[in-house]
Amino acid sequence: MNILILIGPPGCGKGTLSKHLQRQGYHAISTGELLRDAAKTDPALAEQLAGGSLTDDHTITDLLKQALEGQTQVLLDGYPRTLPQVSLIAEAFPDAEIRALELRLSDDLALQRVARRAEQTGNARPEDRPEVAASRLAVFHEQTDQAIASYRAAGTLLSIDASGSPEEVQRLADAVLDRDH
To answer: Contact, 82 vs 149, CB < 8 A?
Structure first.
């Protein structure tokens, strides 16, 4: 199994790139969707999600193991984000080729893009409010920079500049993924 992890700050275009990579044959997995589906049959998990609590890493990893069964080319957007999660994914899928694709973007441009998205959607996403976006960006650096460093040290980090148009980012991603295989 090949697992590609999209990793980058809010506003870097992970969702847009994910759609492109799905057209290239990747099976995208959303941990949020997995949790919401599992909560339909697990009252304790439903209560936890309703209360806004974070779900523990082992639960998410167990759900991923079930969801990835039989898949060959998987795309994960937004998980793993922390160093412990990086280890859990590696342990859960010891035979998988795991790579991370970092979408690099300056903090200023990330916040500008999130503000533009909020404007275009009428603040449809609560996480796009300026104070929430700034907080999410700080949490990204606090937690995810270590995960990125871990993939870099292991030689499994691919990195592209995400400051261009969606089409430019897609071309860069295609080129780096083609070179990597």
So the answer is: no
| DSSP character string of 120-137 | HHTS-SGGGSHHHHHHHH
Instruction: Output the six-digit token pair for 63.
Output: 């759900």
C-alpha angle 8-10-11 in degrees, rounded to nearest 5: 100
Query: What does pLDDT average to in each consecutive run of 10 residues of the chain (181 residues)?
Result: 94 92 92 82 79 75 90 90 93 95 95 86 72 84 93 97 96 90 60
CA dihedral 82, 93, 48, 145 (to 10 degrees): 10
In terms of Cβ atoms closer than 10 Å to its own Cβ (0-12, 13-18, 19+), residue 7 is: buried
List residues bridging with 99 in a β-sheet. Answer: 4
**Residue 180, pLDDT score:** 65
Domains of the chain: 2-180 (3.40.50.300)
